[in-house]
Amino acid sequence: MNPHTEPFTLAVPVNSADHILGPEAARVVLVEYGDFECPNCGQAYPAVKLRLKRFEHRVRFVFRHFPLTDVHPHAELAAEAAETAGAQHSFWSMHALLFEHQLELKPNDLRRYAGQPELDLERFDFELRIKSTVNA
Description:
Elements: E1 19-21, E2 28-34, H1 39-54, E3 59-65, H2 75-86, H3 91-100, H4 107-115, H5 121-135
């Protein structure tokens, strides 16, 4: 077998805790370790979105949080907001909003975005406050 065609194995395999788009049987699995405040991740977002649309039945996309808190002070809270939205089945909507408004990730901005995917705002506020308190 050609060494360049052997499958790559992740140290942490894709699992039910991941945020996943695309078919389980896809031949290509793209795993992004992303930071909502990272300019490079922000630049990659439209390209990834375009590829997923074009190859939607052949590619599986996995997003994993990797906030670089030393250089991106709002990244961790943005990741927590995405998870809080995910608890209400709106992770991908929040994911899109956070990348599309990457320069506006302060707490008031996150709450404003939470209103867009039609989340239960009271629950969002409570859960985000709890998560922020635990991570403080």
